[in-house]
């Protein structure tokens, strides 16, 4: 079981449709799994019908996923966007500011970094230099 | 000068609150060591050879008396009474206790300072020209742009876990006093057809693979700066190598992909980035620029300065090297050497810092700078007051007249402090400076930059030293390689290796032989060491280095 983290804290998985790796996706696929080495620019013409994208974080030291999220949002993707894997509570604000809606973590990580440590960073809209620079 | 608004102040307070919690969560096991390490690094906390080290950011090298006095307080309260100014215009405290670090950060916040992004795989402290706002040759003060970049890069959500560290410098004159082309991104403010914008340079760096930056854009309109930087960083974040930390800097990304390919990817990313900047950043830049308005310069008679030069040969010699022309008549730029012969380059005691703070307050419009060459600067001093400044500096050993001379050595901390070092740097710098003082020749030798690194990472900038020294470990023994012809100025060049290295007790005599060879080779006093090297090449210097040694052996 995985734990879904949002601004209100922990919740169980509520997305029950299959999520397909990009390499196996067909034109009718609406939920995509992206590896961390995906170039979002290559998704340009197939984002239309997609409603869920999940981006893999193999390690908390690997920040590629943050740029992937930002690029997807700048390309106009408005569907659900989830970071999944080794994302730590300290990165929750970065994930939200980059365009992710939520983070999916393992039960083990949720146990080691319990809900209050994520709630501590749920104030991601405050103290944000980027918001001041973009209005 | 820029002062924090409420947003900046509450940001730093919140950040310190977060870091306190991170330290506690490391202790209670919520964070693993691997998870905690990047978090402490992005807050300036290193684990060194003997202890923790806290690296405090001095954005674009700009200080005021209150900030410098607080740095003095930190040195005395939490360290051994001194701090170490670095080649990125930061200051390092080498002996803090881990439990004191949150308190140190709070003390820094009191004077609008922090240690954020002085380490880690983040966008580091942005550097600039240490003569900004005073130099006669700049087209504008580059610090407002540097401050804008500081705000944009601070806690940028996409770029806290880059493949490797990322360094940006901003200059605004033809003369490069910031080693701009040795940065991941170097910006030069230029004017074209009456409009200000930027030359953008990319992929410079030192380290084990030194590279001179390449020009990515001839002219970037002013309002495009932040989205263009974002396009560069997003491209680097996506394709920069993460499999090998020695190939992870953007200089390697540029080298492996080619400048044209990088440019194509950056330009492709740029329009989407540009579209979401609606002008708020430019309004903020206008506010910042107003904050950096020049001080109200006084109209004073410079006669006392020239009288002191005529009367006192010591003052005359010091002012020849340590006073630079100011753009305002009647003013001078005073560089305070932290390179007393035999001292540790870049170290300053609490008392010394307080003295400089007092002098800046009394004589220098409250403006003080740290330089990448590990010295301090009072950028705005009326010429008439410079004799008094010099007299005060003498009382605490700060009146060394050697700026730009051979003993004004850049040296990394080396094996005396650094966990990465393979050899000592500081004692080599001390040995060279002490020998130059014994010989009394450095004024005759003139402009000569010696730069020393204690390992391949090149924090001592040895690649761009006229004489560069790299300390290595050869089977457990320190060995020092020499490079010649490096150039840290606007004509940036990487030095070439002379040949086999020298043992610890041989490196000072080897440098001495190079200096005497130069004196023999030059066509006149005006021809500098670097000019001679560029004219005659390596061979005569090599001969002086190695043939002399061979002769000495033969004589034994």
TrEMBL record, chain A:
Q: Name one Pfam family in it.
A: DUF934
Q: Which InterPro entries match?
A: UCP030820
Q: Please, which domain of life does this record's source organism belong to?
A: Bacteria
Q: Output this protein's name.
A: Oxidoreductase
Look up and give the organism this protein is from: Roseovarius gaetbuli
From TrEMBL, chain B:
Upper classification of the source organism reads:
Bacteria, Pseudomonadati, Pseudomonadota, Alphaproteobacteria, Rhodobacterales
Keywords, ordered alphabetically: 4Fe-4S, Heme, Iron, Iron-sulfur, Metal-binding, Oxidoreductase
Would the keyword Iron be found if you checked this record's keyword annotation? Answer: yes
List the InterPro entries hit by this protein, alphabetically.
NIR_SIR_4Fe-4S, NiRdtase/SiRdtase_haem-b_fer, Nit/Sulf_reduc_fer-like_dom_sf, NO2/SO3_Rdtase_4Fe4S_dom, NO2/SO3_Rdtase_4Fe4S_sf
The answer on whether this UniProt entry bears the keyword Metal-binding reads yes
EC number(s) from the headed UniProt entry = 1.8.7.1
Pfam families from the entry?
NIR_SIR (PF01077), NIR_SIR_ferr (PF03460)
- Source superkingdom: Bacteria
Ranges where the Nitrite/sulphite reductase 4Fe-4S domain occurs:
119-272, 409-545
Name by which UniProt lists this protein: Sulfite reductase [ferredoxin]
Which residue range or ranges hold the Nitrite/Sulfite reductase ferredoxin-like domain? 52-111, 342-394
What SUPFAM superfamilies does this protein map onto? Nitrite and sulphite reductase 4Fe-4S domain-like, Nitrite/Sulfite reductase N-terminal domain-like
